[in-house]
Design brief:
The chain is an alpha+beta fold. It has helices at about 1-30, 40-45, 75-90, 105-115, 125-130, 215-230; strands spanning about 40, 50, 75, 95-100, 155-160, 230-235, 240-245. Strand 6 (about 230-235) and strand 7 form a beta hairpin.
């Protein structure tokens, strides 16, 4: 009988010891890293402005997004070099590109999907989707389970008149203003007037929407035409959204974090 008790205790102790060991293994599992074809945009062109919105609370979720560890724009090298060529042309005209989002990990897309399914969380509705029912975000195409951003060749961006004016930071809890309001009324952005703010879930964000003013149309076309000359293709529903073609990874959705460490050289 005593032997059976001792044996049972030994088995129990072994089981307990395996729990922290398994947890340590899970915690020590290395994060995925980027293929060598990915680069930091700043290493290719330091003059392009970066305002990485998803590292902040100023986005349609209202919190920093999963997977965005640092405010760094990561892209495939062909896309980054194409932006550098576009930037050179704009600089000669007194303008600069400004990126809002570049590579986006799949875990961030999953965060968007989970948020969209939580119909009780409407903290940022007044700014980012005031005329859209959150229950319709999937059906209307504003949220999807996969994003071209996760393939590394898609970028969200705008144009800024030089010299660039600083943009005041967003303060969580501040009064929100609809993203389709006139530029002098919506949240300040040093972008030239594109007719809506960034990530505005509204048909007015469609690149060629007929309701925008002639100046706003000219500004959108300046961005569109400049990028198309360098191989980018615009998403017609979002004036800020462009994908460089051909894509290096047309069928791969990466999940490494947005961080400098994801680009650490591998031996």
């Amino acid at each position: 009988m005593q032997k059976l008790v001792i044996r049972a205790l030994a088995v129990s102790m072994a089981a307990l010891l395996t729990v922290p060991a398994a947890a340590a293994t899970a915690q020590s599992r290395p994060e995925p890293t980027a293929p060598r074809e990915f680069v930091a945009l700043r290493d290719v062109d330091r003059t392009i402005l970066e305002e990485m919105r998803y590292t902040t609370a100023h986005n349609f979720i209202g919190d920093p997004v999963n997977g965005y560890r640092q405010p760094v724009c990561i892209l495939t090298r062909p896309a980054a070099e194409a932006l550098r060529r576009a930037q050179r042309k704009l600089l000669r005209q007194g303008y600069s590109l400004k990126v809002y989002d570049c590579y986006r990990p799949q875990r961030a897309v999953d965060h968007f999907v989970a948020w969209a399914k939580d119909l009780d969380d409407q903290r940022m509705k007044a700014e980012f989707y005031p005329r859209v029912d959150k229950a319709n975000l999937f059906a209307d195409g504003y949220i999807a389970e996969k994003s071209g951003h996760s393939r590394g060749g898609t970028v969200d961006l705008t144009i800024v008149k030089l010299p660039a004016r600083p943009t005041r930071p967003y303060r969580p809890g501040q009064e929100l203003v609809p993203c389709y309001y006139p530029q002098d009324q919506r949240f300040p952005d040093n972008s030239i007037d594109m007719g809506t703010g960034y990530d505005c879930f509204d048909t007015l964000s469609h690149t060629l929407d007929p309701r925008i003013t002639p100046e706003q149309r000219a500004n959108r076309l300046l961005l569109k035409n400049t990028l198309e000359e360098q191989g980018f293709v615009n998403l017609p529903e979002e004036w800020w959204h462009f994908t460089h073609k051909p894509e290096l990874f047309p069928d791969t959705y990466f999940d490494f974090p947005v961080s400098r460490s994801s680009l650490t050289p591998r031996n």
